[in-house]
Specification:
By secondary structure, the chain is mainly α. The chain contains 14 helices and no strands. The longest helix has 32 residues.
């Protein structure tokens, strides 16, 4: 078991995607003038989310909706509940302002698409099969936590009635039609309608270049994370510990739920990874829109500078090892 874990950890750390992420951190630390144009970053994001959603939709069409519905509902429930127990921990254990606790809880209940993609890449690297329709879990987990977190934050502000005005409507629109959710769900539907025949037509574009695009994207994310490392002193030791311990606990919970809904070893690992991940794209955008009173350094730094690097380097092999332990 120990030998298997260290072998898996080594395989993950030496994968091109993770090494390019580390290269991005180094570039930020040495203050290199390397910089991605904003348009390229957006293009890479659109490509990854579209490819991920389309492949997941094709997998759903082959597996059938009956096989997907239970684990998908379980993933949605998990994304909804995580903010509800992380909020009081942050509020009373970390002594954070209610609005900041709500914003951080929303980030940790929501998910990271790039962490999920890195996990699928890791499973392929160790030849571990998984349910391709797991993309559906990613699609349904992104929005519920954001909505719950914003509602928690709004209820702590002086004008509690504001949760029922236009800001809630804007939040719901952003949660459903925001770029990441729209692309994931839209491409998922397209893939489900096209099926394997449609995949055969676009495979050279959505499958073959995928690993290279992921490496470039993680190079950019490494630079962003590296720039945030200096903010660690602002978030304090509590949030640093929170950014590591909570993903481990949530990952363990996700693995257990994956086992009980009948997922394979690979699928169970992916549900654990999603539960452990923290949003740094959709959730920050929603917080800026709906909870401008929250401090970005407090909700973005733990997610991007602590949890994200931890998960894609060490966390993913840990969740795989947990899944292997519980399923044996």
């Amino acid at each position: 078991m120990q030998i298997d874990f260290f072998h898996a950890l080594s395989a993950n750390l030496l994968s091109p995607a993770v090494l390019f992420f580390a290269l991005g951190i180094v570039a930020a630390l040495i203050k290199s003038d390397l910089k991605f144009p904003e348009a390229l970053y957006v293009t890479l994001t659109i490509y990854l989310l579209t490819a991920l959603g389309f492949k997941g939709g094709v997998a759903i069409s082959e597996a059938g909706i009956a096989k997907v519905i239970l684990p998908a509902l379980t993933a949605m429930l998990l994304g909804t509940l995580i903010p509800l127990w992380t909020y009081p921990l942050l509020r009373f254990g970390g002594k954070l302002r209610p609005v900041d606790a709500a914003a951080i809880a929303a980030h940790y209940g929501s998910v990271s698409a790039v962490t999920f993609i890195t996990a699928t890449n890791y499973l392929k690297g160790i030849n571990e099969p998984y349910e391709n329709y797991a993309t559906a879990f990613l699609a349904v987990m992104e929005s519920p936590a954001i909505i719950v977190g914003v509602l928690l934050g709004k209820m702590t502000l002086e004008k509690q009635s504001s949760i029922f005005n236009g800001s809630l409507k804007s939040l719901l629109r952003e949660a459903v039609f925001g770029r990441s959710v729209f692309l994931l769900v839209g491409a998922l539907i397209v893939g489900a309608l096209c099926g394997k025949v449609g995949m055969d037509k676009v495979e050279p574009f959505f499958v073959t270049p995928f690993q290279g695009v992921l490496a470039l994207f993680l190079l950019e994310m490494g630079m962003v994370a590296g720039q945030r490392l200096s903010d660690l002193k602002k978030v304090g030791p509590f949030l640093v510990a929170f950014g590591i311990i909570m993903p481990l606990l949530h990952g363990c919970l996700g693995v257990l739920l994956g086992k009980y809904v009948g997922l394979s070893l690979g699928g169970t690992t992916l549900l654990g990874v999603l539960a452990a991940s923290s949003s740094y794209i959709a959730a920050p955008a929603a917080m800026r829109l709906s909870l401008p009173e929250a401090n970005p350094a407090l909700y973005l730094t733990p997610s991007l500078a602590i949890t994200f690097p931890f998960n894609i380097t060490i966390g993913i092999p840990v969740y795989f090892a947990l899944a292997k332990f519980f399923l044996n």
